[in-house]
Amino acid sequence: MDSEGVLMPLIHEHLMVPWNDLRKGDCCGHLEAISDGYYCKTCDFFLHKKCVHSPEFIEHPSHPDHTLRLQSKPRHNCSLCGKRKLNIFYRCDFDVDLYCK
Fold first, then answer.
1. Could you tell me which Pfam families the record lists for this protein (predicted)?
2. Measured CA distances, 94 to 20, 53, 69, 73, 89 (Å)
3. Which residues of the chain are modeled with pLDDT < 50?
């Protein structure tokens, strides 16, 4: 951990600093009761700690042939619930948001 912040290359390209802010996460779009997380001052980007600390790979029963990998890509649709999500999700050729995992 850097004294000024942390790098999270799978999720965001800039340095993130620990932050506590009651707001929707740019990671998942949900408002959390306890919003400990990480904030990028460069682009006003907030990530919930629980989203950031999701496992890098998961197996999902709806897509048993492949392992899904945590990725960051703006605005995508979840293959399970169909809702348009924000930035962090699991992907192979099948997208799963953090709440459907």
1. C1_2
2. 32, 21, 10, 14, 10
3. 1-2
